[in-house]
Specification:
With 366 residues, the protein is of the alpha/beta class. The strands form three sheets. It has a nine-stranded mixed β-sheet, with helices on both faces. Strands 3-2-4 form a three-stranded mixed β-sheet, covered by helices on one side. β11 and β12 form a beta hairpin.
Length: 366
């Protein structure tokens, strides 16, 4: 169980992560919140008495999302001076946030109730990189199963246009073009045909509700102007064409989907990004066991794959890992990526092939 010191420290840890991700305003806010939190508001008391693991629970990002939403709504000019970068003095920033927590307590408190819905279309760059590796290995047709889909923006992966170091995928006429800065080895050149993309989330966001869009926009860091524009376009795509997204438990859903008949010539792929840390340990183990069992049944005609983009918080980067069945190649680290897809670094073979289990968002050798 965390204590007040650990709960304050999670804001400093997040500040370091934001600095590494070129988000100085958000880093400044997180640093100041570590000092500004007090017991004069219910929001402050709940944050300081947080009962879980604050880093894994993304406590800092929950509160920063609420503050950013207040700024976007124009609710407090002094707060907006901080979020616009106009006010940078650490003492003034801390005092402003301390006052904001009291003045806007009722509006901020609900932002602590659930994990951040940081549904980011740019993460599809890392996920598509993984899918290209599987398409090279098993063929172009892919049935995507995504857990932790949030509002379903990555379920549009078949509708985005990708340029990954010169390797292209997706429809050329797409209103969202994803072109991360590419570093290192380019991904495999392989045709990809996503025949279906289905997703599940324990609390999916319904983007037909304007409030859901406001919530997503709040979680996009104020520094990230390009992300904000891309998010607006992706939300419009969901509202226009819809996505196959249901509410449910990730482990239950994965077990049920893996039990369904699989068309010949189609690779069924479990996909997720920045979700593993939020799943209970028992759910993670059930999914791992279900995938291993389905992998043992996989054939050349009906392959199975697993693509993940999950954070390595110690190194301030995200890691794209891929596994496929049939075959005896264990989980492979094929790329590193910025948290929101600003850059992707492809790795050259031979890939790292140690067996890993995933705990609290990191990868630890068994």
């Amino acid at each position: 169980m965390a204590d007040e010191t650990a709960n304050r420290d999670c804001f400093r840890i997040q500040a370091g992560y934001c600095t590494a991700m070129d988000a100085p305003i958000t880093a400044r806010v997180c640093t100041a919140l570590a000092e500004a939190l007090d017991r004069d508001s219910e929001t402050g008391r709940k944050a300081l008495d947080w009962p879980g693991e604050p880093v894994a629970d993304a406590l800092a990002l929950r509160l920063v999302g609420g503050l950013h939403a207040l700024h976007r709504a124009g609710a407090d000019p002094r707060l907006s001076a901080v979020f616009s970068g106009q006010e940078t003095d650490p003492t003034v920033v801390t005092a402003t946030l301390k006052a904001t927590l009291v003045r806007h307590d009722a509006a901020l408190l609900p932002w602590l109730d659930g994990p951040p819905q940081t549904n980011e279309a740019g993460r599809s760059a890392g996920l598509m990189t993984g899918l290209l590796h599987l398409a090279q290995r098993y063929g172009p047709k892919i049935d995507v199963l995504e857990i932790g889909s949030s509002a379903g923006l990555n379920l549009l992966i078949d509708r985005y246009r990708f340029d990954l170091g010169g390797v292209t995928a997706g429809p050329s006429e797409s209103p969202v073009a994803i072109r991360p800065e590419w570093r290192g080895e380019t991904p495999p050149v392989a045709p990809v045909e996503i025949v279906s993309a289905r997703g599940v989330d324990i609390h999916p966001l319904d983007l037909s509700d304007p409030a859901a869009g406001v919530r997503l926009e709040g979680y996009v860091w104020v520094d990230a102007v390009e992300r904000q524009a891309r998010l607006a376009s992706a939300i419009a795509m969901v509202r226009e064409g819809g996505v196959d997204l249901v509410e449910g438990d990730a482990a239950d859903w994965v077990e049920a989907r893996l039990a369904e008949p699989q068309p010949e010539g189609v690779t069924r792929v479990l996909m997720h990004s920045v979700v593993w840390q939020y799943l209970p340990a028992a759910s993670r183990e059930r999914i791992r066991v279900a995938m291993e069992a389905a992998g043992a049944r996989a054939t050349a005609e009906r392959p199975l794959g697993w693509v993940m983009m999950e954070p390595n918080r110690d190194l301030h980067r995200h890691e794209v890992r891929v596994r496929g069945w049939p075959g005896d190649r264990p989980m492979e680290l094929v790329a590193l990526t910025h948290a929101h897809g600003a850059w992707v670094e492809g790795l050259a073979p031979p890939y790292e092939t140690r067996d890993y289990v995933m705990r609290r968002g990191a990868y630890e050798k068994e």
